[in-house]
Write a structure and sequence with these properties.
The complex is a heterodimer of chains A (10) and B (205). Helices cover 0% and strands 0% of the residues of chain A. By secondary structure, chain A is mostly loops.
C-alpha cells in the first residue's frame, strides 16, 4: 500500500 | 495560534522597546530554515486557505524578524552577536540533516526535507534558552514570547492524542520531535510558572 505523505499540519 | 501569538509578541516587543536584548536571532534563523524546508509543498500542494495563509505568515514574519534584528536600526544596534553565538550550523543543522536523511519514511526530496525540518524545529529553541541562561534575568515580554513559543508544541501533543483516537492518525517522527521539543521547555516553564505564581521577575538559575 502506498504511504500517504500529505502533511496537513504546520 | 500560540505559535502565531509568540511571533506577534516578539514583533510587538521589538517595535515597542526598539531593542532586541535577550532575543536570539539565531533561533529565528533556525525557524526560517525549518519553514523553508517544510513549506516547500506550498508550490505543489494545496491543503486549505488556512494552511497556506499560516505558512506564508510564518515564513514572511520570521524573515522580517531576522531583518529587523540584523539590519534595521535602531533594533539592530542593540543586537549582541557575541552573546547570541550558539553554533547551530555545526550542532543542529548537520545532525538534523543526517537524521532527516536516515529517518525519512520515503527517500524523496520533500520527505527528507520535511523530516529534517521536524528534527531541526525540535531543538531550535536552544540558542534562545542558552542566551537567556547567560543573561539570567528575563524581561516580561521575552518570557511571554518564549513561553508561548514552547506551549504550542505541547498543544500539538494533545491534538495528536485526539487525532490518534478519532481518526487513527499516526505520525511517529512528528510525535518524537514534539516530545523532544516540549521536553526542552519543561525546565524553562517551571521557572516561568513560579515567577508568575509569585508575581516576581523571571530569573533563571
Amino acid at each position: 500500500e502506498e504511504a500517504d505523505h500529505t502533511h496537513d499540519e504546520l | 495560534m500560540l505559535h502565531l501569538m509568540s511571533i506577534l509578541l516578539l514583533l510587538w516587543k521589538l517595535k515597542k522597546s526598539k531593542s532586541c536584548v535577550g532575543i536570539s536571532c539565531r533561533m529565528q534563523e533556525c525557524y526560517a530554515i525549518v519553514f523553508c524546508l517544510r513549506y516547500l509543498d506550498l508550490f505543489y500542494q494545496f491543503i486549505s486557505v488556512y494552511n497556506t495563509a499560516m505558512k506564508v505568515v510564518f515564513i514572511s514574519s520570521t524573515f522580517y524578524l531576522i531583518f529587523l534584528m540584523r539590519f534595521q536600526p535602531p533594533v539592530s544596534a542593540t543586537y549582541d552577536r557575541t552573546a547570541d553565538s550558539f553554533p547551530y550550523e555545526q550542532y543542529l543543522l548537520g545532525p538534523a540533516a543526517v537524521l532527516g536523511f536516515i529517518s525519512a519514511e520515503e527517500w524523496s526530496i520533500p520527505e527528507i526535507f520535511w523530516t529534517a525540518s521536524i528534527w531541526l524545529e525540535s531543538v531550535s529553541i536552544l540558542p534562545q534558552l542558552i542566551l537567556l541562561q547567560q543573561l539570567r534575568e528575563v524581561e516580561n515580554l521575552t518570557a511571554e514570547f518564549v513561553a508561548t513559543m514552547g506551549a504550542y508544541r505541547f498543544f500539538y501533543i494533545l491534538n495528536w492524542i485526539y487525532r490518534y483516537f478519532a481518526e487513527g492518525y499516526v505520525n511517529w517522527i512528528g510525535w518524537l520531535g514534539g516530545i523532544v521539543q516540549t521536553g526542552l521547555y519543561v525546565d524553562f516553564f517551571y521557572y516561568y510558572a513560579m515567577s508568575k505564581w509569585y508575581g516576581q521577575k523571571l530569573v533563571l538559575p
